[in-house]
Design a protein that fits this description.
38% of the residues lie in helices and 15% in strands. The chain has 384 residues and is an alpha/beta fold. The structure holds pyridoxal-5'-phosphate.
Length: 384
């Protein structure tokens, strides 16, 4: 096992993992097992039943925690399962949660259609431009922040949000799925918890659905671990192993996602058929200064507005050959989608338009194919 002070790239490959003690296997085995032999009642090697703990999952949890600079990590069967358990551990009926106004569509659906029905209260705010004292009123128990947001890539000042939240006694969760710990470390900026959909960049190969929550608050961790076992939405050993394998190349992938993403941004900004490009590293981005201060880079997520109506956006996304028309993001392959019709269709149309998700908005997840093939593919779609 590596020391916690090792650098990111080394932690991504080694943290939480040591050669298997019985065989010397260099890679953590897939412990495809549900139960563990005990020498006497209660006398075991730390593992009793795989809902509670599984060695492959333990390795993944420890590796992820090291990358986020957290003391603890807990993995779940999906990003939304992590979100659900974290909210239920931190607030109770009657409590107020303040949430970003363009969070992941499934997060909004969980809050609005599930948690609201059991008595939690939600307020929504655009953390990228709102007065934080107004947005986070006295009595708030939890602040749920996504930055950069999906799909408009708005950026909130994590340090400022955390300072205001802590002043009223609220905890802060940052969904760090888009930036990844390679480019942004919310705990070091004052957040109390980080969640990820590991489905996206962390696993990075579009072959697993998973989630994780990380924290250095040991008391909260104990409570969340209790719920992880009590409610049971845990990832299996095979999925844990695939994600652990994906993590080993996270830094290399993120560097290339960023390099290709920035080339495409430059090209799209100059394109006569594009009216607007959203990317936090663009100097014209309204939150560019905060993005530069709190992120060391950004991956391959780009949104842009196409000239013309929604019909044209539909024709555009159907015409690409290298970019696959699909939901999700963060994999080695390039994807594109129309948020209003796909990932954000569960948000009411009026609310969607009010926050700026127009029918002609197209979201790209730039993969690791050759950049010239990606440009040629989009150029073909512009002509379609
Ligand atoms: C995908 C996603 C989620 C939900 O994760 P699942 O693994 O699909 O449950 C949450 N937040 C963000 C930002 C996402 O992109």
């Amino acid at each position: 096992m590596t020391s916690k002070s090792a650098r990111f790239e080394t932690l991504a490959i080694h943290a939480g993992q040591a050669p298997d003690p019985t065989t010397g296997a260099v890679m953590t085995p897939i412990y495809q097992v549900s139960t563990y032999a005990q020498e006497g009642v209660g006398n075991h090697k730390g593992y009793e039943y795989s809902r509670t703990d599984n060695p492959t999952r333990t390795a993944l949890q420890d590796c992820l925690a090291a990358l986020e600079g957290a003391k603890h990590g807990l993995c779940f069967a999906s990003g939304l399962a992590a979100t659900d358990v974290l909210v239920r551990a931190l607030v109770k009926p009657g409590d107020l949660v303040v949430c970003g106004d363009d969070v992941y569509g499934g997060t909004y659906r969980l809050f609005d259609k599930v948690h609201r029905n059991v008595g939690l209260k939600f307020l929504y705010a655009d953390f990228s431009r709102v007065n934080l004292v107004d947005a986070i009123p006295d009595g708030t128990k939890l602040v749920w922040l996504e930055t950069p947001t999906n799909p408009l890539l708005k950026v909130a000042d994590i340090e400022a949000v955390a300072a205001r939240a802590h002043a009223v006694g609220a905890k802060v969760v940052v969904d760090n799925t888009f930036a990844t710990p390679y480019f942004q470390r919310p705990l070091s900026l004052g957040a109390d918890f980080v969640v990820h959909s590991t489905t996206k960049y962390l696993n990075g190969h579009s072959d697993v659905v998973g989630g994780v929550m990380m924290t250095s608050d040991t008391e909260a961790y104990d409570q969340i671990k209790f719920l992880q076992n009590a409610a049971g939405a845990v990832p299996g050993p095979m999925d844990s192993w695939l994600t652990l394998r994906g993590l080993k190349t996270l830094h290399v992938r993120m560097d290339r996602h960023m390099e290709s993403g920035l080339k495409l941004v430059d090209w799209l900004v100059k394109h006569p058929e594009v009216t607007h490009v959203y990317h936090p590293l663009l100097e014209t981005h309204p939150n560019h200064a905060i993005a530069k201060r709190q992120m060391s880079g950004f991956g391959g997520m780009i949104s842009f507005e196409l000239k013309g109506d929604a019909g044209r956006a539909g024709r555009f996304v159907a015409a690409t050959k290298v970019f696959t028309l699909a939901e999700s993001l963060g994999g080695v392959e390039s994807l594109l989608e129309v948020p209003a019709l796909m990932t954000h269709a569960s948000i009411e149309p009026e609310k969607r338009r009010a926050i700026g998700i127009t029918d002609g908005l197209i979201r790209l997840s730039v993969g690791l194919e050759h950049i010239d093939d990606l440009v040629e593919d989009l150029e073909g779609a512009f002509r379609a």
